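Its record is set out here:
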Amino acid sequence: MPTPHRLTSIFRKGVWGFLFSALLLQADTKPLQLSISSYPSRLNPLLATDSASSSIADWLFSGLLKYDKEARIVPDMAENFYFKDSKTLIITLQKGLKWHDGVEITAEDVLFTFDTIRSPKLFTPYTSSFRNVEKVELIDRYTVKITHKKAYFKALETWMSAIIPKHILENDPDLMTSRFNQHPVGSNSYTLEGFEIGKDMVLNAFDAYLPHPPHIGKVIYRYVQDPSTEFLMLQSFQLDVGSLTPLQVERQIDARFKEHYHIVEQPAKAYTYLGFNLKRKPFDDLRIRQAIRLAVDKQELVDILFFGHGEACYGPFLEGAVGFNPKAKAPATDYAKARALLKELGYDAAHPLRFTITTNADNPTRRYAAEILQNQLAKAGIEVTIKTMEWQAFLQRVVHGRDFDTVLLGWSLPLMPDPFNVWHSSSDKKGGFNFIGYNNPEADRIIENAESLIDRDQLDQAFQKLFGMIVEDAPYIFLYIPNAITVVNKAVSPIEPSITGIWHNKNEWIKR
């Protein structure tokens, strides 16, 4: 494990000498200017469910484990970790880690966090992340033994969840309304200077953070509710990091903007799909789904919707992550083959295939995508009607009521996929995410068996097989993955984009 050699440099210099040099480096570094579109509600990481709260909490709190630049699981607060057997995980913390108030972090905090997140007094969706943990036991002051109900493929990801301080919260009568939620004491590389609605949020480097404090001494979040205002602030160089749309990249930024900012463009961790109601004719026939897929030009969607700033999507898992299968790709667009296949199935100009694409009204990009699909499918003689619905009505009628022909929607793409909720037949139920009705016993078997695989190579092979099976069954037409376009002030370095984004090495950043 890498932690011992990370700590060695500290003690070679001497702790005080190391901290002194780090503080000198911070003194030469300007504050990092960021924006936030809403104020956080609760900064307790167990309750930080909105994007603003989770964004700020990530600067303040740490987990035992984390992803590195290559999306490998490595120690964070941990010194090392290993599986004693398929159901038993041993994690040892680094010694000398401190909470922001100077109290040492120990295994007691890990046990307290586990007990708290399972408490009936705490209402949080993060409880489900620990559903397969049977118990957590203390081995010594810095080591815990975690016993799972069964071997579980996401056992390590569970402990990326943030740890909270026992000494502050163990006697708190109600964590849902605790003062801690607005005045947190964390363990990560920055502390919160204060939290007041209407004012900037200021984060200060935590001088006792190991292996060393971050080089940028201050991070300032400015409240910017409107995306157009954020763009204006980027154009006037008031922000160091921000997001751009493809239209802004192509039409609205100038040479001066490009001289000031690095433009970092990466595939977003999300895809859009056209899903079939597999329990409604004629979509229960694979040949119908294949004919429709032949009439979809994914690259044209990317070119029109995103000016080329995106890529075609070919399956359910993120490229570069566990389970991605580069060999499993749907056939290329072929309108003639689509028409021929439809003719075999009894559809022609006199009796065309007709269906409706339903999507949510609050996403204009999907509305435009539906219109492009409508035009593409018409080239194969398919007549499409578009229906847009307000989100709550969409949930009631489509997701819960299953009243649709096809649906245009999207899913996020986590680094560690969990296909159970979307692709297992048991999730084909009211309120379940498998609302298209996908049912393949072999896919169910792969998903069930994979949940007990803790060997990442075996898991990757199993999920690659599942990936290929889903592509072959065509319950979805996987459409596109837009690019996430981030700009970073060139005065900030080193920026090292990776599959995990740009923030993985933020403690090493310097702003000149």
In short: Residues 3-223+491-511 form a domain with the D-Maltodextrin-Binding Protein; domain 2 fold (CATH 3.40.190.10). The chain has two domains: 3-223+491-511, 270-483. The CA atoms of residues 380 and 459 lie 39 Å apart.
